[in-house]
Amino acid sequence: MGFTVYPALDIRNGRVVRLAQGDYARQTDYGDDPLPRAGAFAAGGVRWMHLVDLDAAKAGGYTLLPLLAAIARGTGLRVQTGGGVRSREDVARILDAGAARVVVGSLAVREPETVVAWLAEFGGERITVALDTRQDADGRWKLPVHGWTEDAGADLDGLLPHYQRAGLRHLLCTDIARDGMLSGPNLDLYAHLHALAPGVAVQASGGVRDADDVRNARQVGCAGAVLGRALLEGRLELADALAQEALPC
């Protein structure tokens, strides 16, 4: 299993932003140029990118189809994208617009059998399940939904094996406490996931600061890492992250 870096663009009101720990009130604005930024990723040697519709993550109804199509058509990047995916029609239209994979988050927690059916229909290579998690006082990895604002009552250790049995190939897992905080990825969490579901390609998300963090995520068994704030702020050079893709498996 190879390793992939996923530069991320989170979009709100047409602008590139980052949220701290998923809090919409704690937003940093990076400008209104998502398409040129995607082009710069491609020029730098990136193969994949991660595109998030933050408006739809709360309200539902993916809104980035024009941007997605422009990125896919104009840059050659393979785009993994989601936010507000609520129906089979959402999945189909996002794929039709040029996405390589559709990310399904809240619905994957609230209605797992619906998403299992999508895995069967569209295939494990076209769906990424996002199980964003927050550890509770008892040490359980809970799975909040609706822009991380509601507790759905589910937990990571119970749901992930169910998806693996259903043919899940790609898991995006964000430790919400570290998202946008530049505090380092939760390596213990990702090592746990690798042991829990060894056949699933896990993407680390949340907290990546530098090339060492990318390297460490790979070493604990992750198949990829999502790069957000550190890349946007120049704390992490794209070439240094991409060097992890070139290493032998």
Automatic annotation (TrEMBL):
Pfam families: His_biosynth (PF00977). It catalyses: 1-(5-phospho-beta-D-ribosyl)-5-[(5-phospho-beta-D-ribosylamino)methylideneamino]imidazole-4-carboxamide = 5-[(5-phospho-1-deoxy-D-ribulos-1-ylimino)methylamino]-1-(5-phospho-beta-D-ribosyl)imidazole-4-carboxamide. It comes from Pseudoxanthomonas suwonensis. This is 1-(5-phosphoribosyl)-5-[(5-phosphoribosylamino)methylideneamino] imidazole-4-carboxamide isomerase. Keywords: Amino-acid biosynthesis, Cytoplasm, Histidine biosynthesis, Isomerase. One of its GO terms (molecular function) is 1-(5-phosphoribosyl)-5-[(5-phosphoribosylamino)methylideneamino]imidazole-4-carboxamide isomerase activity. The active site is at D10 (proton acceptor), D132 (proton donor). The keyword Iron does not apply. PANTHER family: 1-(5-PHOSPHORIBOSYL)-5-[(5-PHOSPHORIBOSYLAMINO)METHYLIDENEAMINO] IMIDAZOLE-4-CARBOXAMIDE ISOMERASE. Its main location: cytoplasm. NCBIfam families: 1-(5-phosphoribosyl)-5-[(5-phosphoribosylamino)methylideneamino]imidazole-4-carboxamide isomerase.
